[in-house]
Design brief:
The chain has one domain. The chain is 21% helix and 41% strand. The protein contains two helices and seven strands, in the order βββαββαββ. Strands 1, 2, 3, 4, 5, 6 and 7 form a seven-stranded mixed sheet that branches. The chain is flat, with a radius of gyration of 15 Å.
């Protein structure tokens, strides 16, 4: 089995709608466990992007990367938590899917 890892970039506007001042503010890691739609991963990313991406005058979250990884893969943030805290308190956000429907767990 495998899982799909999706990484995003968040930006916040510290200015106004008329004079924006965008700052990068990290991002999120999302995973879809037991991923099997390998032949249509591009279409799947498009569909799932509609659920996780945001774009308004003061906040943006965009998909910047994705990859198929092994089931036991840990994100860099998860590995850092294990190393420094001994446990994963903030895991990657897990998404579930059935056909084209994607829900937050």
């Amino acid at each position: 089995m495998a899982k799909l890892l999706i990484q995003t970039q968040i930006q916040e506007n510290y200015g106004t709608a008329d004079k924006p001042y965008w700052k990068m503010k990290g991002g999120n890691d999302y995973v879809v466990k037991n991923f099997t739609v390998f032949g249509a991963v591009g279409s799947f990313i498009t569909v799932i992007g509609e659920r996780i991406e945001s774009d308004n005058e003061f906040y943006k979250e965009n998909i910047i990367d994705w990859e198929i990884v092994e089931d036991d893969y840990l994100t860099q943030f998860e590995r850092d938590q294990l190393e420094y805290e001994g446990k994963i308190t903030f895991p990657a956000i897990e998404l579930t899917y059935g056909g084209k429907r994607v829900d937050y767990v």
